[in-house]
Amino acid sequence: MNQTVFAPWDDPKEKPLIRFKGVTKRFGDFTAIDDLTLDIYEREFFALLGPSGCGKTTMMRMLAGFENPTEGVIELSGQNIVPVPPNKRAVNMMFQSYALFPHLTVYDNIAFGLRRGDMPKHDIADRVDEMLKLTRLEKFAARKPHQISGGQRQRVALARSLAKAPKLLLLDEPLGALDAKLRQATQFELVDIQEKTGTTFVIVTHDQEEAMTVASRVAVMDEGRIMQVATPEKIYEAPNSSYVADFIGDVNILTGTVKPAGEGLYQVHWSEGREPNIAASDKNFSEGQTCHLAVRPEKIAISADRPADADNALQGKVLDIAYLGNLSTYHVELQSGKVIKAQTANTRRVSRRSFTWEDPVWVSWTATAGVLLDR
Amino acid sequence: MTKMSWFNVTSITLGFAFLYLPMVILVIYSFNASQLVTVWAGFSTKWYAELLQNEAFLDAAWVTLQVAVMSSTIATLLGTMAAYVLVRSGRFWGRTLFSGMIYAPLVMPEVITGLSLLLLFIGIGLDRGVLTIVLAHTTFSMCYVSVVVSSRLMTFDQSLEEAALDLGCSSFDAFRLVTLPIIAPAVISGWLLAFTLSLDDLVIASFTAGPSATTLPIKIFSAVRLGVSPEINALSTIMIAIVAVGVISASLVSKRNSLRIQRDEQAAARAA
Ligand SMILES: Nc1ncnc2c1ncn2[C@@H]1O[C@H](COP(=O)(O)OP(=O)(O)OP(=O)(O)O)[C@@H](O)[C@H]1O
Ligand SMILES: [Mg+2]
């Protein structure tokens, strides 16, 4: 792997490749993108994550030049690209709907962009062959788009957008139609291509696991706003809001009021007459402030007796067990009725599992297991 | 095949008789040896031979063909452009008015279209001839083309054009290399429609034709006023044959196309 950590966003001297400055996009009186400010750096693999309709495609379309921002400026390598038409931008896009040309063969689809430039004929042929090989489409070069399967079409779209070796490649849900195995292989291929070509990728995905696997940074969006931009680890381990915590992976969220307990520790009173939780945080909370404690299921232990050294322990009974192969998730109902999810690795056979439905159990976690959030 | 009830048989016979009996009679009498149209005097093809000697008819046929080809080509160009603008440019000021005005000639009585064109040509001092008929036919057939093409463009996936732009095409190249080839069948049927409309137009042509150029429908119409001759029957039979061959081959081509696509898709399903 890399010797030096790739983190241009932490380097104040680094110039971003793309810069959104206060970009707002309205369709009529509907605001699709709301005052977006964002830097994306060269060689990044930047993932946009968010629920359907949050504005991911709109953001891509502004980068490609199909939509103009209502307000604000978009810069590419320091130059304002808002007035530049799509065919003059060193940006290629892979469309969510693929947008393959139905009247052209797979080969001609891939060659289409190359033929628009002044590339010599045999170079075009070489490049197309290279792309066909990369996407494993050699056998289908002579077919038309309606003669191949959905996954193959997706790969044609990918090959076509890659062929021109753009500075910036926009991928709108590039792997949605692939089966799990091909999807994983293509993800690695994408990362590989990215490392080989040094192209900057912006990828839209619904699949958070995909974002975690491929991305250098992830942006979580909601209703036209960016909620958090950070590396996958950071997004997962240190989400800045319960929205982000909830969106990425499974999480238990306990809402309560906070009381400082000194040395970066806080007590969270989350239910009347119950002993408070202890949570560590390097953020400052004032007494009585409402807060959310987000704890990942895999950080919660489950046991028959109350563990002696746990910072937080609660009693409940097993409501449900979800078997996920290598893992099991226990849904434990507390006396208050709240359900806590706890995850354990399945090291034993299912038949010899230590807990079953209706068993009384304790769930416990340490003070540093959770993240204390103010929204 | 299920057995047809007597009711179905009767209705289909009546329907087809109503549609085709006049034409069948016309075709039969074109092979009549007699000079009198209503008296059968044996089989003969002499009227066809005579037709080929008739300079006036041949001239008119030539004019008609020229007019049909030119006017349908211009109408296809203009109609496609108008349809493209109307469908693509979204909302602009006066769009409803503009599209209404394009489609108005569809419902305008032909007499009025013809008369207003006549007044225009007189007004600007244009001598009536092939040119004026071409202009007149272009005017009224262009809106038919634009209806056909715009209904195709409505279902055209706009992201295809965007993809072309994204890959470095200018707007014109995107239209030429992506949009046009895909909507070509609609453009061609628009052209065919304009062509046949021009071929059999009588009203507008009579307003805009001059002594130097007469179209076949005008010629036939004026000849018939002096009495129906077997020669006219022969001419009409030829026109029917041309139209029939055109229609049948067009439908065969489109049928073969859809069969091919079906076969290709099945092949793809097997390969996947
Ligand atoms: N041309 C348009 N006119 C009006 N509203 C639009 C237009 N394009 C997008 N929108 C709206 O903007 C919002 C964002 O759309 P966008 O396509 O960016 O969503 P998305 O995040 O890509 O969703 P998905 O994950 O489903 O693809 C949606 O609510 C959509 O309805
Ligand atoms: Mg989208």
TrEMBL record, chain A:
Keyword hit for Transport:
yes
Which domain of life, per UniProt? Bacteria
SMART domains associated with the record = AAA
GO terms, molecular function? ABC-type polyamine transporter activity; ATP binding; ATP hydrolysis activity
Family matches, as PROSITE patterns:
ABC_TRANSPORTER_1, ABC_TRANSPORTER_2
Q: Which reaction does it catalyse?
A: ATP + H2O + polyamine-[polyamine-binding protein]Side 1 = ADP + phosphate + polyamineSide 2 + [polyamine-binding protein]Side 1
EC number(s) per entry = 7.6.2.11
Please provide the record's keywords in A-Z order.
Answer: ATP-binding, Cell inner membrane, Cell membrane, Membrane, Nucleotide-binding, Translocase, Transport
- InterPro entries named in the record: AAA+_ATPase, ABC_SmlMolc_Importer, ABC_transporter-like_ATP-bd, ABC_transporter-like_CS, Mo/tungstate-bd_C_term_dom, NA-bd_OB-fold, P-loop_NTPase, PotA-like
* One cellular-component annotation, GO: ATP-binding cassette (ABC) transporter complex
**A GO BP entry:** putrescine transport
Asked if Transport is a keyword of the record, the answer is yes
Q: Where is the ABC transporter domain?
A: 18-248
Q: Which family does the record assign?
A: Belongs to the ABC transporter superfamily. Spermidine/putrescine importer (TC 3.A.1.11.1) family.
What is known about its subunit structure?
The complex is composed of two ATP-binding proteins (PotA), two transmembrane proteins (PotB and PotC) and a solute-binding protein (PotD).
Function according to Swiss-Prot or TrEMBL: Part of the ABC transporter complex PotABCD involved in spermidine/putrescine import. Responsible for energy coupling to the transport system.
**Protein name in UniProt:** Spermidine/putrescine import ATP-binding protein PotA
Provide the organism lineage as a comma list.
Bacteria, Pseudomonadati, Pseudomonadota, Alphaproteobacteria, Rhodobacterales
UniProtKB/TrEMBL annotation, chain B:
Q: Report the superkingdom from the record.
A: Bacteria
- List where in the cell it is found: Cell membrane
Transmembrane ranges, per UniProt, are 12-31, 60-86, 98-124, 130-153, 174-194, 232-253
Keyword list, A-Z? Cell membrane, Membrane, Transmembrane, Transmembrane helix, Transport
Record keywords: Ligase included? no
Q: Which GO terms describe its cellular component?
A: plasma membrane
Protein's UniProt name: ABC transporter permease subunit
Organism, scientific name: Sulfitobacter sabulilitoris
